[in-house]
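can u do me a favor
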């Protein structure tokens, strides 16, 4: 009998360590572009964005997270506050597919194993890679395809707020800026080196885009074993 209680504690401790909970769900919202073409508003969704998201909650304060999001990025000089861009009159629209992976941190403990409604702000960052078609603007201002595509790496910076709305559903709203290591998304820098003469804008400033929207995830997985003696 004296060995029974230590044995149970060891078993429950092992289950506490290995018991995890997972989330899988959808993202829906909008996107906007910040670069050398179009408006420079930081948060101004103008194209629909949608995708899938999954999380592995390692503790009540952090999770590993991956997502895949589809959207279009659009830039219209006529909608800019810059009179030089309005006079130039360039426009572009390109489809993008982003995959992102990283870690999400909550401001407060978000323990999915306890009952009741709870909520917390959170931050997410990691690394992203986005696929986009390559275009350039001719000397006459015509938006022209290069008939190929590229992958651009970036850093996602996301701020959000999430709350459970039932035992297995979590609703979140978030704003996520992506800084890319590319200046090619809007066609201001052609992908082909021999088209370098068609580059324009600030070539020392890379492109940004922003996803604004909501996520709805379903939670599942084993609950940990809590033993009280």
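np, heres the sequence
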């Amino acid at each position: 009998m004296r060995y029974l209680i230590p044995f149970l504690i060891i078993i429950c401790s092992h289950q506490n360590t290995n018991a995890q909970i997972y989330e899988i769900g959808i993202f829906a919202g909008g996107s906007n572009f910040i670069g050398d073409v179009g408006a420079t508003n930081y948060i101004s969704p103008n194209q629909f964005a949608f995708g899938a998201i999954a999380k592995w909650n390692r503790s009540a304060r952090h999770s590993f997270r991956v997502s895949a999001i589809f959207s279009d990025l659009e830039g219209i000089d006529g909608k800019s506050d810059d009179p030089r861009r309005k006079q130039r009159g360039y426009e572009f629209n390109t489809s993008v597919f982003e995959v992102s992976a990283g870690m999400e941190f909550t401001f407060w403990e978000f323990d999915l194993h306890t009952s009741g409604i709870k909520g917390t702000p959170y931050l997410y960052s990691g690394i992203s890679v986005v696929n986009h078609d390559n275009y350039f603007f001719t000397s006459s201002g015509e938006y022209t395809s290069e008939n190929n595509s590229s992958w651009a790496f970036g850093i996602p910076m996301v701020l959000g707020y999430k709350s459970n709305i039932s035992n297995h559903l979590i609703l979140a709203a978030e704003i996520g800026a992506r800084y890319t290591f590319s200046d090619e998304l809007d066609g201001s820098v052609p992908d082909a080196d021999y088209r370098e003469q068609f580059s324009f804008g600030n070539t020392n400033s890379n492109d940004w885009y922003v996803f604004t929207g909501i996520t709805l995830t379903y939670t599942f997985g084993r609950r940990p074993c809590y033993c009280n003696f």
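The radius of gyration is 23 Å. hope that helps!!
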